[in-house]
Design goal:
alpha+beta
Amino acid sequence: MSTKSSTAASDGDAAEKSAGVGAEKPTGSTGFSAEERAAMQERAAELRAEGKKGAKKADGIQAVLDRIAQMAPEDRALAERVHLAVTAAAPELSPKTWYGMPAYANADGKVVVFFQDAGKFNYRYSTLGFQEAAHLDDGDLWPVSYALRTWSPAVEKRVRELVRAAVS
């Protein structure tokens, strides 16, 4: 994709492992653990305590989590993993909903990456998509969306690479 190189171990990977997020999560898991839910709720409360800007971000996180909770179980499992991967790889992005889909916006409020569940338009696969604000340009032709059917360590690695490139 991008010609920019990424380091083997990123700050996001280290932060996620130190927080215990995703490290013990089995590939076939179907949902956030109680600890993950509690951590996200705590973070939302912290953001609300920061004031208006923090409250807006907390509301965005809650809207994304609520939307994910409404998805069919297979879509929900993928969306939860995407959420964790995106927020670990690019903590500067702000979660929000966009056309009813979980999305992650830059500081200017422009959506960089989004997750479209298979059930939204009755597709056979979910989609990880990137908008114009993503820095994935690679010559005259590059992909801006990816079909996503199952989650694996290889898929997680690729999603993190794409997100890091998108915000670089």
